[in-house]
Design a protein that fits this description.
2 domains; four-stranded antiparallel β-sheet; two-stranded antiparallel ribbon; 11 helices; 8 strands; 19% strand
């Protein structure tokens, strides 16, 4: 597991502030895997990306995820607390194939799982329908019917739906679904955990606290940002307590 240390966390926070969600997720991935180049990060499958982000989240912020979900029936706010290791283990299958063949409705479709670069291209599309079509084109490598090529754009909707199901089998951690139950009305529903967005919220929260710490200690002791960020959390907090006394 790779933790994002304080100085790098502030750089990531500053860099990703103005980026759209998918590009921001790639920035977080690059920070979580400093040994990978950006092209290598873009080539990660969605499941690999979620595994890396969860591991980095655990190493940087601890093993528990805490958040709030809204019940779709009564709009009650539900506090959610989950262990990172449970999420990582729930769908983990690193032996699952990254490509496969689907036979459906007379079509034979060769496909591969989606990668981060595919999401980045889809994010540039003008609307949701265009984005979905972009993702289908990315993973559908070759389609034939009775031996003759079939344009990706002419795939029946039933085949597209079966393709989505096969992608979930081949890359089970691409989508992490949480089964939640409302304590007020007993409604049960599935919620998608956006790991990158969850990690980004934690990064923003810590970055804001770090900047406040730097401000107080720099004005009190005249130390540089680098020196303050290099302090251990315990020593930094002790100096903050002294500065406030």
């Amino acid at each position: 597991m790779v933790a994002i240390e304080n100085a790098r966390l502030l750089k990531v926070w500053e860099t990703a502030q103005s980026l759209p969600p998918v590009a921001r997720g790639l920035t977080l991935l690059a920070a979580s895997q400093p040994g990978l180049s950006m092209p290598q990060v873009a080539a990660l499958t969605l499941g690999q990306a979620n595994r890396y982000l969860l591991a980095t989240r655990e190493a940087t912020f601890g093993p528990q995820l805490r958040g709030v979900a809204e019940c779709p029936a009564c709009r009650e706010q539900l506090e959610v607390e989950l262990a990172v290791e449970q999420l990582a283990a729930a769908g983990s299958d690193e032996t699952a194939p990254a490509e496969g063949v689907l036979e459906a409705d007379g079509c034979v479709l060769h496909f591969r799982v989606l990668r981060q670069a595919d999401l980045l291209r889809a994010a540039d599309c003008a609307d949701l329908e265009s984005a979905r079509a972009s993702l289908v084109r990315a993973c559908a490598q070759q389609v034939t019917r009775d031996g003759a090529p079939v344009p990706i754009e002419e795939l029946p909707q039933s085949v597209v739906e079966q393709l989505a199901a096969q992608l979930a089998v081949c890359d089970p951690e691409a989508e992490i679904l949480l089964v939640l139950t409302c304590l007020s009305c007993a409604q049960t529903w599935c919620a998608l955990l956006d790991v990158a967005q969850f990690l980004w919220a934690d990064v923003c929260s810590r970055a804001e606290r770090l900047l406040c710490d730097v401000d107080v200690l720099a004005r009190t002791y005249g130390w540089s940002e680098e020196a303050i960020l290099g302090l251990s959390p315990l020593r930094r907090q002790h100096y903050l307590d002294l500065a406030g006394s």
